[in-house]
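User: Please check token order:
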Amino acid sequence: MATYKLLTNDKIEAVLKLQSLNLKHNLSEDKRMSQGFLTISHDVEVLSDMNSNVPGIIAVDGNEIVGFCLSMSREFQHTIPLLVPMFELFENLEVNGLGLSSINYITVGQVCVDEAYRGLGIFKNLYHAFRTLHQPDYELAVTEIAAKNMRSMSAHTRIGFKFLHQYTAPDGEVWNIVYWDWK
């Protein structure tokens, strides 16, 4: 049903539309608990810059984008103020006895599947396409997930992500940092 492609800049607006539909503040509490949610809203310029640096993956059904997995390199650690504490924390963490700062990793900038397409394997396929694309250049993928977002935590665990660290952000939100070792 869905095909998987590199995100191109002409598809950025469609990704942002799907992102907006799934932002935490646009969902009811019931939807957030049952379907998961996104926290950060990108703008066209930032997402275009991120994607030009390290491309993301989209899932497409016909002409409709039904999922995306965004990529973010360390070069963007100061671009989105809400993510600065995450990147600063990354510098003090270890994976398999090595400092994360000494490992060539890529950050998952965000992953989302349209609600009508959930449960069909699109999440898994997005991540496998993401790994195929980026594994030649990176040793692992790292991301953070709101601890309240149990659907996302469960989905990431099924893919192969492992828990690394938990912290509380200044706004009181509790975050889980997870990683997927590609070695």
About this structure: The helical segments are 12-21, 29-35, 44-53, 84-90, 122-134, 150-159.
